[in-house]
């Protein structure tokens, strides 16, 4: 008996695993296969419900609480709260429970609201209407009810509800056009193809009659990979098998375009769709500040435990005497006497832990979270980082790393689309050794092909040759460009002008569009792909048709693409284009040396080059190629490898035709940005897949390399001449020798390293140590540390991530940043500490997977040097200040135990204990951490070197931390002993209360504690006010308002404002304290003494050894942007109105440096000067007018516009001669 069927069923339904097999079988329309076919096994797949939310109604509370109490601080305070509930502690459980409850509640509300929004989004998607074919009719249902195997009808501009296999289309050629903007950001129309055997089914009845099964791989997240096979059953014949690939799979989230409707079968639904599989969250990144916070927290926890142990030991030492152990006013019960001393000691230890637990600032975590969340909006609101062309500004995908932007030491950047515009322009081509340069420039739109458009041939004799025709045809045919024709509302095609088509070319690759447009300008126009025939218009205005037989798609490993076409004469042609390194080894004839020399010359000039080759195929060779391709495409296992092998066999024995050169211009201000990053002490590495010559030219243009830079090469070419071991050691000796000779620091050495992908693989091989040649990684890192810039060319995406990981994990553990714009940059963006995506032309995958997204590379300068600088300064002050104010808060409580017999008596009232961190001192530091600007934005932008002052987490190092802690201890000692000694001169009254001899003020325990608490609140708040350099009305409101709130609350809590509170122990205490003159004097005196050391320390440091930031603070600030614009407008208006005399109270002086000078100073007043370049029309006319003696009448100059802030004009404000 065959138990295989039973075993399969048991395995599938009982094992609970769907990945038990590498493929799945889908029954289209849920129809069983005919008798005699494979066994029908109904399979269970998830429905089409999308779930992006984390919680349900029932799981929210337990799951959210579990996640929050995984944080050490929250768990610690929970333990303290439980201890207060269980044992008799000196403070109420409210003092720990209320802050903890506040923190947990605020976080829960925030996370619950975010999840509720996700639920709403999920519902809107899951309840979307969908058309399903059932029993020959189209039935409308909801999206979440779709099942694998359902036949779905999708209309134009509708979004695909799940992953579908394309069966048929309303278009006769069985194609449809799709945009995948929501998936990868590419707005271009992509072409998808229906299964050839089902493309004839046009109606729902015909589609419903289809009897077929689909065998495909299990769900996996790669958007661009799919392997499957469809088996179509016709009557009793053998099933017809057809291959399925990514061109047949319509992905959920994509949109149907330019097609009336399609029919498709659901193959992956719900959370198994490729889009849902890409939802998986990225690994959590933690900033250096967060790590420092945790380290400081551990130190304070140790201090807390030490305090509790010391007080417990001293308590029992104090109570060693019987009269102290059991005084007359506090007799123990019998149960307490019988309790073991160890248990009593442990209970007392826990009680002291509870008493001193406020040294751990639980509210700091909430404040930090709020600061990061609210602070991130400053990036999104920054108008200078808004790009008009894209219509988008900067985006923040995670706010957890804001301060990390101020700690970056290495920047890893892509080249194409990041440093360059990725806006390709065809420059020239070399055909059989002859250069052809088009004289027209096309900006994305195909112009009408007028007869005047021709080529300039620099070769002697411009006659047409066979190679030229083949070259131009190859570029017109070997691509995946689509032609988009627009029509007017009257139905007349705009795409026809003077008998020639004028349309837009669309492609996912800007290179291909540039090449096809370049051919257009050289006389060969690609018209369309229709019925699998490609049409081109040659120079003789004749339309040529080629049947497109196969497309061998481009991939990053082969670095080339090919097409097999058939001409009208029946000739089979294989056209191929690709990188020179992938074409030249496969060429057997052609002018290789001339073309290679031209390619190298173009690469040195920074142009992107491609080589073009062809091969004529005989009938037998074509059939053999078809056999290889069909066999590879039908394979369900290892299809990619088999296709690569087939391509390798087919793409050989080429005849070289020529090469193309396309320019990718440098982005605006890319060079200025890199130069500023260098000045800030940041090392910039360029990681690119381009050839070395092109990348080097770009590096020089972008000022990554300077002319004085000594270039070190670690390339495959050099390692062929010498062993890798010898090259590495030679380079290492070079940098170390130069370092020792110059005696300069590593940062001052101007070395540039170039390494290619092949050599990098050899360097990173883990078997190096075994070979006996030492550790190549360490030698390589040593060389890199001595280089100001590094270029890595010919890099695969995985190698980019490996480079970032190598630097990130080196012994210095530097903070790394990766920036790129394409899908090939995602790996390094995810690997780096901070990942920034550029909203470029290679899709939005990089922007979606990044921590931050910016429109252009130039915005990185402000992102790091301004926003990053501010974020780090603010949060560093926040963290240190929180620990400082908690030391000030709890250390007097520790000292007080020495004066109360270690009885665990609280120094402060319960309300003060509870509200100190929540209300009295929380808002000022939160606002400071949001709006503080220790130097102006213009100063940070103008002086990038200020970034070095905060490098390597300098404000959160242990010396700084110890200074803040010692300052807190000093202030706490002043608070306690100052109050103690000032009120030491007292006498006992008849009722046992303390009373000062001079003022008759009742001086009890709560008055003493309230006095200290008042000095504490005022001191820590004024300390923050002294640290504030950027004052706004909201700073004043929050700082002085917090102090006012404390006073009002104390009056309220003391029963002054609210008399019904007279039952509690603080009744009238605050008012009684304020009625004493010495109390006022002590408050003012203690605050002054507490703040004085920090003020003196700052003054001395600024005078003796000021930092660059402190020097920048002392220089006179420049005019603000608004002030500058106002003065420019005023001068402009007066110039145009002819009233210069109003601006010249003293004199109107003309100063010339000679006829050959290019600038003249026009003095408008005592200290106002205009610097005018005489090469401009306006200065020339102005100077001529002044030379003739003209003074106040400048009305003749009014047609000219004076731009004082533009290039060539500078405005000098009163004060230091500093250009703004």
Automatic annotation (TrEMBL):
Protein name per the record: Phospholipid-transporting ATPase
Subunit: Component of a P4-ATPase flippase complex which consists of a catalytic alpha subunit ATP11A and an accessory beta subunit TMEM30A.
Main localization category: membrane
Main enzyme class: translocase
Keywords, in A-Z order: ATP-binding, Cell membrane, Endoplasmic reticulum, Endosome, Lipid transport, Magnesium, Membrane, Metal-binding, Nucleotide-binding, Phosphoprotein, Translocase, Transmembrane, Transmembrane helix, Transport
Every P-type ATPase N-terminal domain range: 42-96
Family note: Belongs to the cation transport ATPase (P-type) (TC 3.A.3) family. Type IV subfamily.
PROSITE patterns xrefs: ATPASE_E1_E2 (PS00154)
Location(s), subcellular: Cell membrane; Early endosome; Endoplasmic reticulum membrane; Membrane
Protein EC: 7.6.2.1
Record-listed ATP binding positions: 414-416, 512, 554, 577, 608, 688-690, 794, 800, 824-825
Superkingdom, taxonomy of origin: Eukaryota
Catalytic activity: ATP + H2O + phospholipidSide 1 = ADP + phosphate + phospholipidSide 2; a 1,2-diacyl-sn-glycero-3-phospho-L-serine(out) + ATP + H2O = a 1,2-diacyl-sn-glycero-3-phospho-L-serine(in) + ADP + phosphate + H(+); a 1,2-diacyl-sn-glycero-3-phosphoethanolamine(out) + ATP + H2O = a 1,2-diacyl-sn-glycero-3-phosphoethanolamine(in) + ADP + phosphate + H(+)
GO terms under cellular component: early endosome; endoplasmic reticulum membrane; plasma membrane; recycling endosome
Record: residues binding Mg(2+): 414, 416, 821, 825
Domain (P-type ATPase A) ranges: 129-192
Cofactor(s) for this UniProt protein: Mg(2+)
Residues that span the membrane, as ranges: 295-318, 349-368, 911-931, 961-983, 1003-1025, 1037-1061, 1067-1092
Domain P-type ATPase C-terminal: 847-1107
Active site: 414
A GO term, aspect molecular function: ATP binding
Topology within the bilayer: Multi-pass membrane protein
GO BP term, pick one: phospholipid translocation
